[in-house]
Design goal:
- This protein has nine helices and no strands.
- With 262 residues, the protein is mostly helical.
- The protein has a domain of 113 residues.
- Helix 3 runs antiparallel to helix 4, helix 3 packs antiparallel against helix 7 and helix 8 crosses helix 9.
């Protein structure tokens, strides 16, 4: 069967994928198909994960991070649009200043606001370091009169990172209740269920098993393609889960935080 790329799934995607698999399985006569025990095992861990996920989403720090991320995204996008507008300024020196800053900005990627939390923080910090240390970029900011925009982006990025680290500390203080810690066990239970389905399909006693294999494969391909599309859209940067969204992978050897999204 197709293998879900769990190491690339965000927590929300990981949980929803398992829910969707359960829905496909439950649409069949589970008792007749002798899938009750493995189905119940997956249902139990999904219920646990769903409850914990809802708790994490209601966390005050989590909601604050969403607002702070929106703040810095607005500052970044506003600054970029402002620079692009100044490329058409009637004074050559203003055009030149805008192009210098835009060139530097774009050298870090074209979809910075869509990166995961940690990547966006690091990229913006590096860019702002250039803008405060490279003489031509410092002069460009002065020429354009956009120091207030730069200050806003700096404050927004720093504030976000401080609260992000606070959430890391909060999660570390409750390791037993971490969503991340539940993913490996859930993946094991999932594999047990699909192994039963696949084994019965190979035996060929009931065509329904092959139908289920085909449906799970189609579902898995859909989720994997969604992940691949997100990675491509982030240019050279691979998108990884949020800090609270950073799981261990589907295999014991693989481990992977952040958000980009909740």
């Amino acid at each position: 069967m197709e293998t879900p790329n769990f190491s690339r799934y965000r927590n929300s995607e990981f949980l929803q994928y398992l829910k969707d698999v359960l829905e496909l399985v439950n649409s069949q006569d589970v008792d007749t198909l002798q899938l009750t025990v493995p189905r119940d095992g997956l249902q139990a861990v999904v219920t646990q994960m769903d409850n914990l996920f809802q708790q994490e989403q209601s966390s005050g720090i989590t909601q604050e991070l969403i607002r702070l991320d929106e703040r810095r995204d607005k500052a970044f996008i506003g600054l970029k649009v402002l620079l692009e507008a100044h490329e058409y300024h009637y004074e050559d020196n203003v055009q030149s200043a805008a192009r210098s800053l835009l060139y530097n900005m774009n050298s870090f990627g074209t979809n910075i606001p869509r990166m995961n939390y940690q990547a966006e923080t690091a990229v913006i910090d590096s860019m702002l370091t250039d803008w405060s240390t490279e003489p031509d970029l410092v002069a460009a900011i002065t020429t354009l009169g956009i120091s207030n925009w730069v200050a806003e982006l700096t404050t927004a990025n720093t504030t976000f990172n401080n609260r992000f680290l606070a959430r890391i500390s909060e999660s570390a203080a409750n390791p037993a209740m971490s969503f991340t810690n539940m993913r490996e066990n859930s993946a094991i239970v999932y594999r047990d269920l699909v192994a039963h389905i696949q084994a019965y399909a190979v035996l060929g006693g009931n065509a329904v098993y092959q139908t289920m294999v085909n449906e799970v494969n189609e579902l898995t391909n859909h989720y994997n393609q969604t992940v691949y599309a997100r990675i491509r859209n982030n240019s050279d940067n691979t998108d990884e889960p949020l800090a609270s969204e950073t799981p261990s992978d589907d295999t014991p050897q693989e481990n992977s935080v952040t958000e980009g999204e909740v």
